Amino acid sequence: MNHRVDLIYFNAGGGHRAAAQALEQVISSQQRPWTVRLVNLMDVLDPGGAFHRLTGMAPEDLYNLRLKRGWTLGFKQELKLLQGMIRLAHPSLMRSLQAYWQASEPDLVVSLVPNFNRALYQSLLGARPGVPFVTVMTDIADLPPHFWIEPGQQQHLVCGSAKAAIQAFEAGYRPEQVHLTSGMILRPSFHHPAPLDREAGRRALGLDPFRPTGVVMFGGQGSAQMSAIAKGLDEVQLILMCGHNRGLAQRLRAMRRSAPHAVVGFTADVCEPMRLGDFFIGKPGPGSLSEAIHLGLPVLTFLNAWTMPQERYNAQWVRDEGLGIVVATTRAVPEAAAQLIGKLERYQARVRRSENRAVFEVADILAGLLDSQSAPARAGAEAPPVLATGAQGQAQEPAGAPSGAERGSVPQRARAAGRSHCRR
User: Fold this and answer.
1) Which of 22, 74, 269, 380 to pair with 287, CA 20 to 30 A apart?
2) How far from the centroid of its chain's Cα atoms is residue 333's Cα?
3) Which one, of 302, 340, 322, 279, lies nearest residue 420 by Cα?
């Protein structure tokens, strides 16, 4: 049976779109009998482009511009304002979304975006009762309230860490609604990399093939902090990945340093240049951290007032798991980098214990939900309970499992569900 599966994303930051595309690619490569549709939420909510005509930019462009310039101070307060505006606009959002679901008739809706999951769920319930709704968190943990996890919704949650699973249980979700994977969704190229000659690859970039090399990356928009880092690490060989930030790339190429450095602009596949490095320096974004750790690169990351509120837990997680070093400012980077390079083998050994198969696990979770929907029609019986898949593939408690009071504390339930994010 051909199922219509909608993957909902938007372009704020790039990670949501990248996760949707990665999932689409894996589903296609597995030749599942599904029609997968990538749906930009902003195209549904503003199909005529009224916001763009009024302001001269797409809704996500201002957010991405601020990331590029490093204007992130005060985001926590602005997030609360945004969430309040979304709730005020709830009736309008419901009308637009219900009309879309009625026209597109999906069999499964998968949200890879925060903040809008109340409207997405309720509109789907009204327009297409019985169609499963799944939120796949692309952050390592939630930022409650009303960011990723909306309490009281009869939906499914895919969590990439034990922390997120604990948060789901605390919000009242039942075990059969929570699916724990082994990490964040990564592009398929990270799981099936082409053969790489690291020495030749470094030489091609003008680098010393045998010198410890750091990969500096601040997401798809780059960051002005990269210039300060490059200057502070004058004697450390670096690969500086600037994404779409052409001005930053030009400035870094013109910079004179004692150690060699290579500047990489936007590339659709960041895996190859990252594999040429020995360690990673960047903001604690869930995608960048997960990519670096998957490739065996210890991380040097930041936690301060400018850190995005939804990314602050990530820095704590790096520190707690021994995956790298966390500093407050770029001025602390030289000393921290020296410490990381001095203990590089030990940090690399710790990072290499991680394993991430999340993109494949999510595809299996979605297949299980679709199969459970099809079962009643085939068998003329009530659908069997959906089992939550643990990080190592174990089935978790079915519907009707004992309550938290009968089974133990929320943390115990999350630990029982599997290992923590990206960890054996």
Assistant:
1) 74
2) 25
3) 322
Residue 67: closest CA among 380, 310, 349, 289: 310
pLDDT digit string, tens, across residues 313-346: 999 999 999 999 999 999 999 999 999 999 999 9
* Whole-Å CA distances, 58 to 7, 64, 76, 163, 293: 20, 10, 22, 33, 33
Residue whose tokens read 């307060």: 77
Measured torsion, CA atoms of residues 237, 241, 246, 247, in degrees rounded to the nearest 10 = -50
Backbone angles phi, psi at 36, to 5 degrees: -95, 125
Q: What is the 3-state secondary structure (H, E, C) of the chain?
A: CCEEEEEEECCCCCHHHHHHHHHHHHHHHCCCCEEEEEEEHHHHHCCCCHHHHHHCCCHHHHHHHHHHHCCCCCHHHHHHHHHHHHHHCHHHHHHHHHHHHHHHCCCEEEECCCCCHHHHHHHHHHHCCCCCEEEECCCCCCCCCCCCCCCCCCCEEEECCHHHHHHHHHCCCCHHHEEECCCCCCCHHHHCCCCCCHHHHHHHCCCCCCCCEEEEECCCCCCCHHHHHHHHCCCCEEEEEEECCHHHHHHHHHCCCCCCEEEEECCCCCHHHHHCCCEEECCCCHHHHHHHHHCCCCEEEECCCCCCHHHHHHHHHHHHHCCEEEECCHHHHHHHHHHHHHCHHHHHHHHCCCCCCHHHHHHHHHHHHHHHHHHHHHHCCCCCCCCCECCCCCECCCCCCCCHHHHCCHHHHHHHHCCCCCCC
* Residue 58: predicted pLDDT: 60
pTM for this model (two decimals): 0.84
CA distance 230 to 252: 8
Beta bridge partners, 159, equal: 180
pLDDT for the residue numbered 380: 47
Q: What is the mean pLDDT of the chain?
A: 86
Residues facing 8 on adjacent strands:
39, 111
pLDDT in tens, 152-199: 999 999 999 999 999 999 999 999 999 999 999 999 999 988 899 999
pLDDT tens digits for 390-416? 433 333 433 333 333 333 444 454 655
